[in-house]
Amino acid sequence: MSNWSYKNNSRWSSMYPQCSSKNNALQSPIDISPSNVSQECGTKCELTIKYRPSKCYIINDHNTITINYEPGSYIIYQNTWYELTKAKIHVPSLHTFNGNHYPAEIDLYHCIDNQCESGLILSIPLNRGPDYGESVEFINQFINQAPLNNTLVEREITVSEDWNIISLIPEERTCFIYNGSLPHPPCSSGWTWVVFNQPSRIGLTALKTLQHNIVQKAGENIRPTIAKSDKMSVYKVSHEWIKVFEEKPKKNNINKLDDLSEVPMKEDTSQLVQIQKVSIFEEYFNKYRKNIKNFMLFLVIILIITISIKMAKYIIRNDIVNKYLVPENLNSMNMNRSPNNQNKNLGNENMPPNNIPPNNIPPNNIPPNNIPPNNIKENKGNINKPPNNIPKNQEGKGNINKLLNQESKGNINKLPNQEGKGNTNIQTQEQQQQKKANENKNLQLI
Q1: Where on the phi/psi map is residue 9: left (φ > 0), alpha (ψ -120 to 50), or beta?
Q2: Which residues contact 366 (CB under 8 A, 6 or more apart)?
Q3: Do 211 and 80 belong to one domain?
Q4: What region, left, alpha or beta, does residue 200 occupy, with left being phi > 0 and alpha being psi -120 to 50 degrees?
Q5: Is 341 a member of any domain?
Q6: Residues 434 and 303 in one domain
Q7: Are 240 and 267 contained in the same domain?
Q8: Mean of the pLDDT values across residues 411-440?
Q9: Are 199 and 253 part of one and the same domain?
Q10: Which of 53, 112, 288, 334 has a CA 20 to 30 Å removed from the CA of 255?
């Protein structure tokens, strides 16, 4: 805990030189009055507010309720993005209006970087009202659980899913802008103040809780107003130059309180500061996106090569090509040939083979039954002479005719049947040799 308090603010300048008007002419807070307003400001002072829901984390810092807000909420002012970091509640208000305090004031601190040595403070005065309305509901969700004593130990308070500090923005958004300082030590300059002219409401119950239970005595958490320096300029900004956009929870769309098309885009300039809060995973992925992409491509290539090798081994090991591809090709060729072969044989079904004579015509090399072969004619004179052991007129003619008739009939009848049962078109050499052997046998018998 630091060695200062709001009670001893008269001694700040001795401990913190920047808290002295002699060393720093731009001091805050000030009195807002028509005499202090320099002129109206238009496009140059245009302000865009874009807030999102948050969880509620609260500490009590120097007798002041301080809400630590989650990242992701911004104010855009003069092409610079300021991120909302915390909000402080003062009782009564820090700023006065024509010399008068409002019952309370909540100041929203927006920073350019993590050091938060300078930035923008959005000041919203709070006036007592009935216990209903968006701003009243926003405060009521945490005020009864806020720590009563000074503590920097953060306490998380359960709030609704759509708990959004944008609920405190007043409907009439005319405001005053000036360059000032922190309202407490070290009183450093570099802070832009945006003070709304129209207050938001705070419920009577919540206001009493702040006044009696937390602050206990009015003025124990505010710095008295500082006389406006001649170096300070206060500008009035009308309602139409303040644009407000509310981001709904768990949705990508933005509920527009004003025309969404007028939201300024982030520009890539040296004066633009863009603050983005992303998770560790998203930051790592964005940083090494190209390397991750190349690594994934490498893994895919290795996987394809491995699968190809496994498939090749399987095909070779199981002889897939010969089993499934070669037989199919041969069968297809046989199927293409078979119709022609069948057509060619249709006309030859009833015709005997060329080398087999008809049943009634003996082969050329076999003599008819009644005509003896040539060697029989030459021995014509010896035919009528029976051998010594054969009787006359019985054995000669009878046996010769019987043998010729049996052999000729048997061979003639057997040839077509045997040939028809086998391969019908070609007579093998073995059959021809067998036929010649039978003929020689018949001649020897004769």
Answers
A1: alpha
A2: 408, 411, 412, 439
A3: yes
A4: beta
A5: no
A6: no
A7: yes
A8: 58
A9: yes
A10: 112
The model's pLDDT over 309-320, given as tens digits with 9 standing for 90+, comes to: 988 988 888 888
What residues make up the domain containing 303? 283-318
- Helices then strands, counting H and E runs in the chain, come out as 11, 18
Q: Which two tokens stand for residue 245?
A: 């956009």
Measured between alpha carbons, how far is 356 from 149 in angstroms, rounded to an integer? 130
| 268 in the same domain as 288 | no
Note the pLDDT tens digit of each residue in 275-292: 344 445 565 566 677 788
Cα torsion 99, 175, 255, 279 to 10°: value is: -90
CATH (domain of 264): 3.10.200.10
- The reply to whether 264 and 287 lie within a common domain is no
Q: Which helix (H) or strand (E) holds 194?
A: strand 189-196
> Rounded to 5, what percent of the chain is helix, strand, coil?
35, 20, 40
Assigned token pair, 372: 């003896």
Which range among 144-153, 165-174, 210-219 shows the weakest confidence by mean pLDDT?
A: 210-219
Residues 255 and 292 in one domain: no
Q: With contact defined as beta carbons under 8 Å apart, do 72 and 166 qualify? A: no
H or E element that contains 416: helix 396-421
In a domain, residue 337? The reply is no
Match 């300048």 to its residue by tokens.
13
Predicted TM-score (pTM) of the model is 0.58
Determine how many CB atoms are found less than 10 A away from the CB of residue 85: 19
Task: Name the token pair of 226.
Answer: 């500082």
Q: Are strands 189-196 and 119-129 parallel, antiparallel or unpaired?
A: parallel
In a domain? residue 334: no
Identify the residue with better confidence: 165 or 335.
165
Say whether both 260 and 389 belong to one domain.
Answer: no
Give residue-wise pLDDT tens across range 225-265.
Answer: 999 988 899 999 999 999 998 776 654 444 445 544 444 44
